[in-house]
Specification:
- The structure is a single chain.
- With 154 residues, this protein is an alpha+beta fold.
- The protein has two domains: 48 residues, Ribosomal protein L9, N-terminal domain (Ribosomal Protein L9, domain 1); 78 residues, Ribosomal protein L9, C-terminal domain (Ribosomal Protein L9, domain 2, Roll), CATH 3.10.430.100.
- It has a four-stranded mixed β-sheet with strand order 4-7-6-5. The chain has a three-stranded antiparallel β-sheet with strand order 2-1-3, with helices on one face.
- β6 and β7 form a beta hairpin.
- The longest helix is centred in the middle third of the chain and has 22 residues.
- The protein is elongated.
Length: 154
Amino acid sequence: MEVILKETIDTLGREGDIVKVKPGYGRNYLLPQQKAVAANASNIALFEKNQAEIKARLEAETKAAEALAKKLAGTTISIAMLTSSEERLFGSVTSSDIAGKLKEDTGVRIEKKNILLQDPIKELGESNITIKVGFQTTVDITVAVVPLVETEKA
């Protein structure tokens, strides 16, 4: 089944692309969610007519993603966690923690699903984390997990 994408889908392609999908995926997900339309003659003609508008929107999205990637490139964030006397973490650092700290430190809001963290970080030290900032645009940041130092109250 061929469909025309109405929005960018990472696993399929960009807005305006004509892609071939399995009939069930198209019929049960893409079409009802209005993420795509059937690739018939009238829809193809409509999308060709709006091609310049789609191209301009995609270029703007790409420029925004590249600007965000440039802003985040080389960023190091430090997350303080409780540790035991043997310097083992109580808990772990998850993509939610990283997203929250990024927003706090840089003011950039990244959704936790765009932080490509295979497993939660469970030890002290630095880790390189990849963040997806746009369609096929990623940036690497460094996350330093440090022990939480409690201040003594006098």
